[in-house]
Write a structure and sequence with these properties.
3-stranded antiparallel sheet
């Protein structure tokens, strides 16, 4: 996208100071497509499930390891507003049985892909039970247990004597990206139908 600056206010100030505006050029180095995608992924991009790449089970978008979640939490508004993420929607880091079931049932809902690592995601909720007015807010979502199961996160060494719910609450998205991004970049593609 080309940016065309409006120099009129600046030219007006230059004239008010008694000077003459000079022609100017804007030397802009365009973002390459991959850098632009990385920036958009920090905010979140809405996609269909069939647009998500799968590499050896890991989820990707345009060559980036990603987190996948559904931002429509209107049926989970109560949990979001009560700050009860254990009862609300989950985010996915792997092509788990839940996502496979969604695909097989033809439920290609709109998903948001992101690389945001703070655990808070932009979701849509109803303002209250009595109307259909939908608002966006940041909400904490927890990782899907099926995803953790499939990447071996609940191994005996990690979870000895610790409840799975505690492991889920303590899951570090940043650690996940630090650990798996280098591997994801080198894994072969596996298309899911």
């Amino acid at each position: 996208m080309r940016i065309e600056p409006n120099w009129t206010p600046l030219d007006k100030l230059i004239r008010e100071m008694g000077a003459n505006p000079r022609p100017r050029t804007l030397n802009v180095v365009p973002l390459d497509e991959m850098k632009e995608i990385e920036i958009l992924l920090k905010r979140g991009i809405e996609v269909k499930l069939d647009e998500v790449e799968v590499r050896q089970g890991f989820l990707g978008y345009k060559e980036n390891l990603i987190i996948l979640y559904i931002d429509d939490n209107t049926h989970q508004t109560e949990f979001v507003l009560r700050d009860s993420p254990q009862e609300g929607r989950k985010f996915h880091i792997f092509d788990c049985s839940t996502l496979q079931r969604m695909r097989s049932e033809g439920r290609f809902e709109r998903y948001v892909v992101t690389t945001k690592s703070d655990g808070f995601f932009k979701v849509k909720v109803m303002r209250n039970k009595n109307d259909d007015f939908i608002v966006e807010m940041a909400a904490q979502l927890l990782v899907c247990q099926h995803c953790l199961e499939e990447i071996g996160y609940f191994n005996p060494n990690r979870s000895r004597g610790v409840k799975r719910s505690h492991i889920v609450r303590e899951f570090s998205i940043k650690e996940f990206f630090d650990t798996y991004t280098p591997k994801f970049k080198n894994l072969p593609d596996r298309k899911v139908n």
